[in-house]
Design brief:
This protein is an alpha/beta fold. 54% of the residues lie in helices and 8% in strands. The protein contains 26 helices and 8 strands. Zinc ion (ZN) binds next to helix 4.
């Protein structure tokens, strides 16, 4: 069966299928019903929120043989051709790739001709802000005196980059990010329709990761379905998404409210043992506390703008009265400092633990002055972690003679020392490798092979699922600065996952850090029998095909996943 990406398969075809842009839909419907359709529209807003889909629906409504209508028939030649993206009277132009004056001149010539069979000639120009100045000027001339059979629909993510003279000639619609709940509902409809069983909290997580773009949500779902089908991965979906699930964050909030420092430290330990990305945890926790603060400060705002599931919303509303604003603020500030410090130290765990220890030790008898201070400023002896132990000791040594300044220094030094010890490869070693510029390619491959276990373990520490996928692969060749990493043929699914653009970047960075040189990487699939000489050609073809796939990935990423005219 032919595979179609969800974003294409479930692209809205009618006004009523568009989600999250109700204000635009109702104004456009009204214009069609009252026969007051403007000759030029500008749809602006973030990527992946339905601008081009809306443009196509509007075009279909205007050109349907039974129209103009707000419910295009989907059956007439015009409707069908617009859906397929092949209508001669609806011309889609990508401003990013046809940005010159020649294209616009051709358009101006073309505009004079009547539609072939439909009511209007409709030009949909996507990313219109990318047109050159000359092209804009040429376009302006057409816009000043548009023939009555012509309509323009411009779409852009950057309306501020457009000429004011063009803007003033368009009816403008601002598209907005789509609320979490609506994205989740659409994803739910998709999985129900595809008969895939995915729990609601996972759909929420995907919706949260999509950041208000339905196209991103659908693409994430596309990537995740195979992962989810492989039942054994369970919780790892969240590492795949690079987020921490809401129940985990709620648990920490619960412990903060209870002031249970021991369980918090144990919990951080568990997360770390499970290979959860503590940096992601830290960021997610800051966001979660911000939501908790909102729940305290303004319930209405909280309900409106927080990007969380209804269950978590209720949970936070329930916990909000149990902690003061200033305590939440203090916690957030401490975590932000921990985040900064973690970059300096290249470790998240220790700053994270220290933040909690400091928070609870300096803490919060009710009514006490709760002004915040930078993490190390008022560090007293009873907040120091036990030397040589990542977990703080219950009974720390006395250091009452030490001045604040030296205390601060020695603690930072101690932390850095500990972290260096625990790293796969020290900073010094990395520097040394970088010095060797002309590295023999065979030698380089051997080097990667010899450090492959280190690489896997380093990646596993940060992203456990990614590490386990990658452990099925082996370094295959190194040529012209490109390291090819091969999966056995039966692991094509693993290869697809690691090839996700974010994953490639992450893997490349980690390999480069261990090897000490920036290596480009490519994943390939091996033929069934790599010894068989006759298969060599086939194997090479596969390598080629994979380069194309990677190229497409990069391309799609650059152009924000915009594939015109379909599949
Ligand atoms: Zn029709």
């Amino acid at each position: 069966m032919e595979y179609r990406a969800f974003a294409l398969k479930y692209r809205p075809k009618k006004f009523d299928e568009v989600i999250g842009q109700e204000h635009v839909v109702s104004t456009l419907k009204n214009a069609i019903l009252t026969n007051r359709v403007h000759h030029a529209y500008l749809f602006s807003g973030p990527r992946g929120v339905g601008k081009t889909s809306m443009a196509r629906i509007l075009a279909k409504s205007l050109n349907c043989f039974k129209g103009p209508t707000i419910t295009p028939c989907e059956n007439c030649v015009s409707c069908r051709e617009i859906t397929k993206g092949v209508s001669l009277d609806v011309i889609e132009i990508d401003g990013a790739s046809n940005r010159g004056i020649d294209e616009v001149r051709a358009l101006r010539e073309n505009v004079k001709l009547s539609p072939t069979y439909a009511r209007y000639k409709i030009y949909i120009i996507d990313e219109v802000h990318m047109l050159t100045q000359e092209a804009f000027n040429a376009l302006l001339k057409t816009l000043e005196e548009p023939p009555s059979h012509v309509k323009f629909i411009f779409a852009t993510t950057h309306p501020q980059k457009m000429l004011p003279t063009i803007l003033s000639r368009c009816q403008k619609f601002q598209f907005t990010l789509i609320p979490l709940e609506k994205i989740k509902e659409k994803l739910k409809r998709i999985v129900e329709n595809e008969k895939i069983n995915i729990e609601e909290h996972i759909l929420y997580a995907i919706a949260r990761c999509s950041g208000g773009s339905i196209r991103d949500g659908e693409s994430l779902l596309d990537q995740l379905v195979p992962v989810i089908m492989e039942k054994s991965l369970g919780e790892d979906i969240f590492s795949f998404l690079g987020i921490i699930d809401e129940p985990s964050l709620n648990k920490i909030i619960e412990l903060i409210v209870k002031k249970d420092i021991k369980s918090i430290l144990n919990y951080i330990h568990t997360l770390s043992e499970e290979g959860k990305d503590l940096e992601v945890f830290l960021t997610s926790l800051i966001e979660h506390l911000r939501d908790l603060l909102l729940a305290k400060v303004s319930i209405d705002t909280f309900k409106e703008i927080s990007n969380i599931s209804p269950h978590t919303r209720d949970f936070l509303l329930q916990k909000a009265p149990l902690i003061s604003d200033s305590q939440i603020l203090k916690m957030i500030e401490g975590l932000i400092e921990a985040k900064d410090l973690s970059k300096k130290l290249n470790s998240v765990r220790i700053p994270l633990e220290l933040t909690f220890i400091k928070f609870f030790s300096s803490s919060p008898k009710e009514g006490e002055n709760t002004t915040t201070a930078p993490i190390f400023d008022k560090l007293s002896s009873n907040e120091l972690p036990h030397k040589n132990s990542e977990l703080p000791a219950e009974d720390p040594p006395q250091m009452s003679e030490t001045t604040e300044e030296t205390c601060k220094k020695s603690l930072e030094e101690e932390i850095i020392e500990d972290i260096e010890k625990s790293m796969d490869c020290s900073f010094q070693q990395e520097e040394e490798v970088k010095e060797e510029e002309h590295f023999d390619t065979g030698q380089r491959l051997e080097e990667v092979k010899s450090k492959w276990k280190n690489i896997i373990s380093r990646i596993s520490k940060k992203r456990v699922s990614l590490g386990s996928y990658l452990s099925q692969a082996t370094p295959y060749s190194f040529e012209e600065g490109v390291l090819k990493i091969a999966f056995p043929k039966e692991f094509s699914f693993h290869k697809e996952i690691v090839e996700n653009i974010k994953n490639i970047k992450f893997i490349r960075e980690n390999i480069s850090q261990i090897i000490g040189a920036d290596l480009r990487i490519k994943f390939i699939l091996l033929s069934e029998d790599r010894e068989e000489k006759g298969d060599k050609k086939k194997k090479e073809e596969e390598v080629e095909a994979n380069s194309d796939a990677e190229f497409m990935n990069e391309l799609l990423d650059t152009f924000e996943g915009k594939l015109h005219h379909g599949e």
